[in-house]
Amino acid sequence: xxxxxxxDSAFMRKIISEMxxxxxxxxxxxxxxxxxxxxxxxxELRPDLITLDIEMPRKDxxxxxxxxxxxxxxxxxxxxxxxxxxxxxSDEALKAMRIGAADIITKDPAVVGKGDAGFKTDLLEKLRAxxxxxxxxxxxxxxxxxxxxxxxEHPEAIETDRIRACVVGSSTGGPPALEEIFSKIPARPRFxxxxxxxxxxxxxxxxxxxxxxxxxxxxxxxxxxxxxSEPGVYIAQGGSHIQPTRVAGGKIVTRLLExxxxxxxxxxxxxxxxxxxxxxxxxLLAIQLTGMGADxxxxxQDIQDRGGQIxxxxxxxxxxxxMPKAIVDAGLADCVLSPPTIRDLxxxxxxxxxxxxxxxxxxxxxxxxxxx
Length: 372
Hints:
- By secondary structure, the protein is α/β, with parallel strands linked by helices.
- Helices cover 36% and strands 19% of the residues.
- It folds into two domains: 2-136, Response regulator (Rossmann fold, 3-Layer(aba) Sandwich); 155-350, Methylesterase CheB, C-terminal domain (Rossmann fold).
- Strand 4, helix 4 and strand 5 (103-107) form a beta-alpha-beta unit.
């Protein structure tokens, strides 16, 4: 796969290029010193993949991404945004994903400059994942693309009236999908939704803030000791694993763990699914969204064993169809749906009982115990 590296730092261009060249699956076909140069090089070189810095002179990464999406629509390069690990950087990175970036990677120049093995592994894994998906969807010449295949969806397979809680697993390409599926949850929802999104801590804070501003229902960050006392959406703090736990009085409290045996990504979707199954049994709905790897398939087996229900995002709508496909291939999915259909299903399950109040204080589902 052919890669274009765009960064205003000559040092970072050199390091990132060397890391990419070390893998025989990739060829660095060009480097660009800023966003404006990046757009010109993208048009000239027609790469499969682009690594794109966010903060650059002349033309920043967000502006460059918009132009690349517009002017390179005939060959559609997949774009990996390189963001500084700051609040501002995380906000801009999430904006980039809404515009069309496939994924984001955080870079600390002091760490990357030392040839950090963790950064290198993450970089190559992300490029391979988004590049492999692109190769199956963006290799048609203009005018030659076949008509979109109509996917038959069966949301009626889900029994919404017995749902008392929902757990969501999400990774590569997940934030825009989360924004879509939560966009119609009423302001006074019926049950809690807990999300494990593979992201660093600052990014999940920005994600929770963004969703709370743009979704009708209350959205908050679940940190260590957060009491899930009100139905709403809870985004697990990134960089740790989340384990919802029932404590005295029937309260559900979120515990954060630094490590979980066998877990590659944080927070672990497998752990969230497994503990959700233990807490809610056949009253649980699980939703597996886009992402690379197979995190969630073991937890999905626990959900099925306890009578819960599982929805997977359709492969055609995924940025990377790894995590949903693993569950589907294991025969654990009750149905496979696009984000708009998941959105409507979740809104119907939550029940529109809104009175215009953004943050409810008294509406609880049957069987859901309010905290003292």
